[in-house]
Design brief:
The chain is an alpha+beta fold. It has one domain: Mog1/PsbP, alpha/beta/alpha sandwich (Protein Transport Mog1p, Chain A), CATH 3.40.1000.10. The chain has a 7-stranded antiparallel sheet with strand order 2-3-4-8-7-6-5, with helices on both faces. The protein has a 3-stranded antiparallel sheet with strand order 9-1-10, with no helix packed on it. The two termini are 23 Å apart.
């Protein structure tokens, strides 16, 4: 397995397992994401990930290193070590950047080995704002590490300088039947709308235009790193 795939697999596993993250203090936490259209670049790349956590959620974890960055959010009143819902934003810049579909397939293959009664579903693969994009739903019916089920919807975007992974996950009781979906269709539709609104843009490249005005319930957050 490539280093790149191993890093993203680790991120998914971190979501699946019981967390041991120490929450950052308010002094350490970065400022809230700026509205769409505001320059939030932190490296030389003009790319921006236009995204924001769901309303009322708070940052629970952040880490970064050479070429990689990840930030996680949970609902406001949630203990970071006992979460039931989580959103994470990741970026990776080591070349060559992977194919979004193939990366998700690789992660699914490894998750299938670690999870009892695992399935995955391709929900979208195509191009968004002229960037290759793929979205896949992972269903872990029983995670032996915590004896819980988990649904994970993952969106991958290959930019010109960075690769982005956006993950929304929910822990549930063990899923007994292969046909069971432990969240209502309206919730899954909400997840789909949320991830669909997240995109990458580059205001220096007409192939990937950034919005001229703020998009409702969305914000620009920079998760790229040199």
């Amino acid at each position: 397995m490539s280093r790149r795939c191993a890093i993203f697999l680790l991120a998914i596993v971190m979501i699946a397992c019981t967390d041991n993250h120490a929450e950052q203090s308010a002094a350490e936490a970065p400022a809230a994401p700026a509205p769409v259209g505001v320059d939030t670049k932190v490296d030389a790349s003009p790319e921006r990930l236009l995204a924001a956590p769901p309303s009322g959620w708070r940052q629970s974890f952040r880490t970064e290193g050479p070429g990689i960055r990840m930030v996680e959010f949970v609902p406001e009143q949630t203990n970071a070590d006992e979460w039931t819902e989580k959103v994470s934003f990741e970026s990776f810049s080591d070349p060559p950047l992977p194919d979004p579909i193939e990366l998700l397939k690789s992660i699914a293959d490894d998750q299938r080995k670690a999870c009892k009664k695992f399935s995955d579903h391709d929900t979208f693969s195509g191009v968004e704002n002229d960037y290759p994009t793929s979205v896949r739903l992972f269903v872990c019916r029983v995670n032996p590490l915590n004896n819980q089920g988990q649904l994970t919807l993952v969106k991958t975007i290959r930019g010109d300088s960075h690769f982005y992974v956006i993950t929304r996950a929910k822990r549930v009781p063990p899923i007994e039947s292969d046909g069971d979906m432990p969240i209502p269709p309206a919730t899954m539709a909400e997840w789909s709308v949320y991830l669909r609104a997240i995109t990458v843009c580059n205001d220096t490249d007409p192939r990937h235009p950034c919005p001229a005005a703020p998009v409702e319930s969305n914000a620009a957050t920079k998760v790229t790193s040199e």
